[in-house]
């Protein structure tokens, strides 16, 4: 399905479940997928929001996420994630339905910052699944911005995030 939807484009999967990655690689050897280790827990979501939303280091679009001091920045992703100018980012992982799960806090924040780092004038479509859950709802509105919400269908939200590459944003100014 992904190959047909993104014909001629590049699609990669990032997942916390190594066994899924191995299974999918055997079934679809051309599918590009990478294992990601998350350092967050759903139970800490409120503390993470409070600790990052208004922090200057979490709004610096010019800072490379790999060296960011923001606790939500995913720093260990494959280099291609940071250097590719993505047209679309889908956040549907990691697991987020129980307190001990990693949750999608870092994935949503990182997707928003990657979208903001695109070339000036470009936009990135960012989709977040399971927005009926508190973490996905709150973090998507905080870091992808209510004003950038394009559409919501059921549990799926679509944001159109503009480039802010040449601007540093404090958390409170991340959204218009």
From TrEMBL:
It holds the Pfam family IRX15_IRX15L_GXM. Its main location: Golgi. GO terms for cellular component: Golgi membrane. This is Glucuronoxylan 4-O-methyltransferase 2. Keywords: Golgi apparatus, Membrane, Methyltransferase, Transferase, Transmembrane, Transmembrane helix. It comes from Noccaea caerulescens. GO terms for biological process: methylation; xylan biosynthetic process. It is a single-pass membrane protein. It comes from the Eukaryota.
